Amino acid sequence: MRTLLLCLVLSASAAFAAGSPRVLLLWDVKNEQTEALAKSLRTSGADVVFSATAGPQFNGENPPLEGFDVVVHLNGTTYAEEMNFAGQRSLKEFVARGGGYVHHEWNAYALSIGHYMGLRELILFDRTSGFGPGEVVVKKVPTKEQQHPVIWEIPQSFTMKGASNIGHAHVFKEYPVQVLAVDQNGNDAIAVRELRLGRIVGFHHSGNWNGMTLLDSGEARRLFVDGVRWAWGCDPNMLAKDEPRAKKCAEIQTSRVRR
């Protein structure tokens, strides 16, 4: 059994560049803040590719998601536009096959106006209203989850200038959402979900909305860096320490090969 597991680990490891996830940055606007985020991801070792179009025009083929490990979806300025339905379907299938998906706001807003319904399983928050512009204080929840890989590098509490979602994590019947941090008003701020083979990270802040410079925040960019690393979850350097995850990564690789 251990020999079989080792073979699975080696197979998965061979499929991924050592320690380097390939990331599609599905952008809302190409500005200094978006470029700074891409630079932070690249500095962390990720191979970052910008989508050919902004998020609403993504159709699953510009570019195709084959060969990517994680999609980072920015939606601060394109919140009023519906995403191409083929693009929504491709993102959902990508996660089902083991891909990672990292999103921020205003995805919950898009759901509230009847958009992005094909991404309901991937959007971790519900919306009551919105906050900002102003200071958004993010605080880790007071549990053992303070050491979760998405948030372990950020301070216990930090402040960003921008806007954010007012609301809480969505309650799914299966594969529940895990809340890692809240804001100063008690709204859920950072959440994760393991969905079948895939992993999802959700942030309640709004990034590029309304000319905000929230992504200038080093903590905000660090959350994306660590969020991407966790959403990928198949770093060969870590799999030897995590047999259950190694087996799952082998399943992910098998699903990709079959495709």
What does this 3D model show about the protein?
This protein is of the alpha/beta class and 259 residues long. The chain has one domain: Class I glutamine amidotransferase (GATase) domain (Rossmann fold, 3-Layer(aba) Sandwich), CATH 3.40.50.880. Helices cover 31% and strands 23% of the residues. It has helices at 2-15, 32-43, 85-96, 107-112, 218-232, 236-239, 243-258, and strands at 22-26, 47-50, 70-73, 100-103, 129-140, 157-166, 178-183, 188-195, 198-203. It has a nine-stranded mixed beta sheet with strand order 2-1-3-4-9-8-7-5-6. Strand 3 (70-73), helix 3 (85-96) and strand 4 form a beta-alpha-beta unit. Helix 1 (2-15) crosses helix 7 (243-258). The longest helix has 16 residues, at 243-258.
Helix and strand topology:
Layout: H1 2-15, E1 22-26, H2 32-43, E2 47-50, E3 70-73, H3 85-96, E4 100-103, H4 107-112, E5 129-140, E6 157-166, E7 178-183, E8 188-195, E9 198-203, H5 218-232, H6 236-239, H7 243-258
Parallel strand pairs: 1-2, 1-3, 3-4, 4-9
Antiparallel strand pairs: 5-6, 5-7, 7-8, 8-9
Largest sheet: 9 strands, mixed
Strand order of the largest sheet: 2-1-3-4-9-8-7-5-6
Mean pLDDT reading: 89
Query: Could you give the order of the helices and strands?
Result: HEHEEHEHEEEEEHHH
What gap, in angstroms, lies between the N and C termini? 27 Å
CATH class: Alpha Beta
- CATH architecture annotation name: 3-Layer(aba) Sandwich
**Number of DSSP-assigned strands:** 9
